[in-house]
Write a structure and sequence with these properties.
This protein is an alpha/beta fold. 50% of the residues lie in helices and 16% in strands. It has one domain (2-207): Rossmann fold (3-Layer(aba) Sandwich). The protein contains 9 helices and 8 strands. 2'-deoxycytidine-5'-monophosphate binds at residues 9, 31-32, 35-36, 95-96, 99, 125-128, 173, 177, 183.
Length: 216
């Protein structure tokens, strides 16, 4: 069984998907980390995902990378990757550009399907309900207004940015995520939509679990 959850940055989908995974025993897969790990690798080789002159090299790096998810850990080129190093302002500033490349998306989509193969999984991202698992058993779209999302990121303290700067960075990432040629953030017509702006994480979790119970 596949539970697919999509939503914009800061909508709470990672926290909710993790909780659902812990309480159902489903494998929790965070697809954003796949894009973040590839972004880190590209930046470490001195390439800029936004620079058209680096495009060939960027695509080659993506094609040659081995990426997988096992037992809650992301592996890039067979080495475990720490999530901590992927949640930086630098990765945040470049990941939307890297993830806008259709060739990169094809690599990640295949890795996601392989990671969820033969096991009950809860997978979250931007195009999980629409592209990666269009036949998912349960589809949920978590939303929240930009103020709530900026406040949540600020409270996480993983960023050096001020609340004002975070709000602007999230708005910019939203714009890039929505304007992608492939894999843009869309509300699937068969997804359950939840606006979490004024809800506590426990309330969101209860509503998501109720949806899952009804579908199971
Ligand atoms: O969920 P996140 O903020 O960690 O995702 C990081 C970036 O990766 C985000 O800017 C959009 C991109 N992404 C994507 O294009 N498709 C996905 N399924 C997941 C993430």
């Amino acid at each position: 069984m596949i539970i697919a959850i999509d939503g914009p940055a800061g909508s709470g989908k990672s926290a909710i998907a993790r909780m659902v995974g812990e309480n159902t025993g489903f494998t929790y897969i965070n697809s954003g980390l796949f894009y973040r790990a590839l972004t880190r690798k590209v930046l470490d080789t001195g390439c800029d995902p936004a620079n058209p002159d680096h495009r060939d090299q960027v695509l080659q790096i993506a094609r040659e990378s081995t990426i997988s998810w096992r037992d809650g850990v992301l592996y890039l080129d067979h080495a475990p990757v720490s999530e901590h190093g992927l949640r930086t302002d630098e990765v945040d500033a470049h990941v939307a550009q890297l993830s806008s490349l259709p060739e990169v998306r094809a690599v990640v989509n295949q890795a996601l399907r392989q990671s969820a193969r033969n096991q009950d999984s809860v997978v979250e991202g931007r195009d999980i309900t629409t592209v990666v698992f269009p036949d998912a058993d349960v589809k949920i779209y978590l939303d929240a207004d930009i103020e709530a999302r900026a406040q949540r990121r600020y409270a996480e303290s993983t960023s050096e940015l001020s609340l004002e700067e975070l709000r602007a960075a999230i708005a910019e990432r939203d714009r890039r995520d929505r304007d992608k040629r492939e894999g843009s953030l869309l509300l699937s017509e068969d997804a359950v939509y939840l606006d979490t702006s004024d809800l506590t994480i426990d309330t969101v979790y209860d509503r998501v679990m109720n949806t899952i119970r009804m579908k199971r």
